[in-house]
Design brief:
Blueprint: H1 8-17, H2 27-41, H3 43-101, H4 104-124, E1 153-161, E2 168-176, H5 183-193, E3 210-213, E4 219-224, H6 229-232, H7 234-246, E5 252-257, E6 260-261, E7 263-265, E8 269-271, E9 273-275, E10 282-287, E11 296-303, H8 307-313, E12 323-325, E13 333-339, E14 342-347, H9 357-372, E15 377-381, E16 387-388, E17 391-392, E18 397-398
Parallel strand pairs: 4-5, 14-15
Antiparallel strand pairs: 1-2, 3-4, 5-6, 5-9, 7-8, 10-11, 10-12, 13-14, 15-18, 16-17
Keywords: Membrane, Transmembrane, Transmembrane helix
Region (Disordered): 71-142
Transmembrane segments: 43-65
């Protein structure tokens, strides 16, 4: 180590020669001053921390704004793509409209063809345009069968008891045309096939009898088994067979029991044969078991003196379940006259006639009442409208062939 050229004694002498320094402060003052200086230094880290935090917030905000800007630009781009797609679709639609406008004659021709077809459909089925009966949304009404309906067809009519067995309800089935000689065979087949319950009628057919042609084409022969229940319930059976056979051009029934001539009935007694009347001079009412069943025209069980009395009876209320008037009270007439096989009904000015099921059913009831009195045509005068269903009220109307078509 290098040796100092100053001696300690020399240094001490030199220090003694320096001017004297005197500090008048107390120890407490000196300590307080030092403490204040240290306290001031504590603010420096705090300020630095605050500055750092502020800087971080600024940087973070900038970053978030940048991300949002990017997202906004992406959304803007997607929106732009959608608008282009929509514009393309609009352009396609416009081109289609232009194409359609270039073919007005073809569209016009198609419209004319549709209108023509629609008119044909409407002319074929006027009944489908008719309004439902008053107070009801929809009603199944079984129409009558007219001569014009039988150009290539035949009918079988069966008299079926109602569900309470108070009335005989004639129901008719239209079949392919068959020879009159085959009528009874067709009748037996239909008796086996019919489902009466779906019409609200009694389950009556088939019957435990044999039906065949008698001595001529207008005679039906019926053979009973021994002790047949039908012989005991002869009133209902004979009424049913009269109603059935009268619509099938049969004028007489002959009877046998187990092949032996004649049959002994509980009420009618012993009978070999029975004529079938075709003009019973009855009125017609309506039968309907419930709202889910169709309504049928049904002949009364009693006859009347004249046609007008029977017409008025068709408006009468019957205190029998399922039976109601067939002719409404507001269908009024002033006078009735006849000319041979034509009956003329002059309607009142107050007569309510509409193109509705209710009116059609009432008019058909009148036609069948006329048929029961031997008339073949009916003329309605002073009718407020020209047509009701298929009936032309400006012309003579032929009475129907059979009521209540169920097929």
């Amino acid at each position: 180590m290098r040796r100092s050229r100053w001696k300690e004694s020399e240094i001490e002498d030199m220090l003694r020669e320096l001017p004297k320094l005197k500090d008048d402060r107390t120890k407490a003052e000196v300590y307080a001053r030092i403490h204040d200086k240290k306290k001031k230094k504590h603010w420096i880290p705090l300020f630095a921390g605050v500055a750092s935090l502020f800087l971080m917030v600024v940087l973070a905000s900038s970053f978030i704004i940048e991300i949002k800007g990017t997202t906004s630009r992406e959304d803007s781009g997607s929106s732009g793509k959608l608008s282009l797609s929509e514009s393309k679709e609009m352009a396609d639609l416009e081109r289609k409209d232009t194409s359609n406008q270039e073919k007005p004659s073809e569209d016009k021709q198609e419209a004319q063809e549709f209108s023509s077809n629609q008119a044909k459909i409407e002319s074929k089925d006027k009944f489908s345009e008719m309004e439902p009966r008053k107070g009801e949304k929809e009603k199944t009404f079984e129409q009558a069968i007219y001569q014009d309906d039988l150009k290539n067809a035949s009918i079988i009519t069966m008299g079926v008891p109602d569900d309470q067995m108070n009335f005989i309800v004639p129901i008719s089935i239209k079949l392919k045309h068959h020879d009159e000689s085959d009528t009874l065979n067709q009748l037996v087949n239909q008796m086996s096939d019919i489902d009466e319950a779906q019409y609200g009628l009694s389950d009556y057919f088939p019957l435990d009898i044999k039906i065949s042609q008698g001595n001529d084409i207008n005679t039906a022969h019926i053979d009973f088994p021994e002790k047949s229940q039908l012989l005991a319930e002869d009133t209902l059976f004979l009424h049913s067979m009269e109603e059935t056979l009268s619509y099938n051009n049969i004028e007489k029934m002959t009877f046998s029991t187990e092949g032996k001539q004649g049959a002994r009935f509980a009420h009618a007694g012993y009978l070999k044969e029975m004529d079938i009347p075709h003009q019973k001079k009855r009125t017609y009412l309506l039968y309907q078991r419930d709202e889910s069943s169709p309504s049928f025209l049904v002949p009364s069980n009693m006859g009347y003196r004249d046609f007008e009395e029977a017409l008025q009876a068709g408006k009468g209320e019957a205190d029998i379940e399922g039976i109601s008037p067939a002719i409404p009270h507001d269908l009024k007439w002033e006078r009735i006259s006849s000319n041979g096989d034509l009956v003329i009904i002059h309607l009142s000015d107050q007569a309510v006639i509409e193109n509705s099921e209710e009116t059609l059913q009432a008019l058909e009831a009148i036609l069948f009442i006329a048929k029961d009195f031997g008339f073949e045509k009916v003329k309605f005068e002073n009718a407020p409208i020209e047509e009701v269903g298929q009936l032309n009220l400006t012309e003579d109307i032929l009475v129907p062939e059979a009521p209540n078509q169920v097929n």
